[in-house]
Design a protein that fits this description.
Number of strands: 0
Shape: elongated
Distance between the termini: 76 Å
Strand content: under 5%
Order of helices and strands: HHH
Largest sheet: none
Number of helices: 3
């Protein structure tokens, strides 16, 4: 119990420094909030680019398989499927 009291006593002087940042506090036109929004947008663009690259790889593989005449797994237009 005394450890908890000591921890609280140590944190009390720092209470003034524990304010929320501009994005959390509600000041949406501050530089920190703009930077946070730019960072979120950059991460979304990066993740979207990875998804597009991932999907285009499989489109490339499927087109290449069709060009060689090999049957594509799951293709219902395959004459050997019937």
């Amino acid at each position: 119990m005394t450890r908890i009291a000591l921890a609280i006593a140590a944190l009390v002087p720092m209470a003034a420094r524990l304010d929320a940042c501009a994005a959390c506090f509600g000041k949406s036109d501050a530089a920190m909030a703009k930077g946070l929004n730019a960072g979120i947008f950059a991460l979304l663009v990066f993740v979207l680019g990875l998804w597009v690259a991932f999907a285009s790889f499989f489109v490339f593989i499927a087109r290449r398989a069709r060009a060689t005449g090999e049957p594509v797994p799951g293709d219902t237009n395959d004459p050997q499927h019937n």
